[in-house]
Amino acid sequence: MQYQSATFTGVSGLEIYYQSWQRAKATRGSICLAHGLGSHGDTFKTLASDLALRDYTVYSLDLRGHGRSQGKRGYIHRWSEFREDLRQLVQIAKEPELPCFIFGHSLGATITLDYALHYPQTLQGIILSALPISKINLSPVKMALGQALSSLWPTFTLDTGLDIAASSRDPNEVAQRYADPLRHRYGRARMASEFHQTITQLQRHSLDLQVPVLFLHGTADRIVPAQGSRQFFEAITFPDKQYQEYPGAYHDLHADLDYPKMLTDLNHWLDQHLQPQYSWKTSQITVDT
Known about the structure:
It is a single chain. By secondary structure, this protein is α/β, with parallel strands linked by helices. The chain has helices at residues 45-52, 80-93, 107-118, 140-149, 171-179, 189-204, 226-235, 259-272, and strands at 2-9, 15-22, 29-34, 56-61, 100-105, 125-129, 157-159, 186-188, 213-218, 241-246. The strands form two sheets. An eight-stranded mixed beta sheet has the order 1-2-4-3-5-6-9-10, sandwiched between helices. Strand 5 (100-105), helix 3 and strand 6 (125-129) form a beta-alpha-beta unit.
């Protein structure tokens, strides 16, 4: 297994950290991984290694303001910064004549969905794990405060209050998260405002999605309840869509007790989507984020 880490210069000049995993003769394509709020790319090490063993080249970035990437913790100026950073990772990952997928988890799933609406022609498909597209278990008072202060005090810091114990049923995984020095619990006022605006726009554009999509969600997810992603799935008219729920599973499916089942389902879906089935047209969608 070949492992590398490096940085690229993202929007506004911030250095964005990423990692890659690859077997010597990986030939199936590339998969980019985008993590959730307060997390970082290391959380995907097991998933990345398992996918690399199936001859994919796997890339995982630390979002700006997260992990080893530069930027104020939990801060963005505009949502498009997330999207364009991910676009640069896709450009690094994408190989001629080979498919490219994105696996996005939680906040990373929202970024992935937004990216797919803007740049469908760059992708073979997307996987949305625990997509926060409607209700999330963050304090509505904090969300409202963040939106109110977005212009006046955009860097105002809020404790997200996310329950780490609700991330996984595996006690070892939970303990690692509590002890992880790279994790944070911060969200800034501008982040709250940009996130709210983005999910509102994405809900309006469900009919415009033109990329194969796999939804993954645990039914016992207390951080991002499954109902929102289920409803969004039903609203999509693009025919190549699949929704997979895991009874009793928590938020981080890539680190939960049902991970082996999730990995099997993911590999099966990827196997079915290695060959191009659609001719993408350049996206004409305007999502004002």
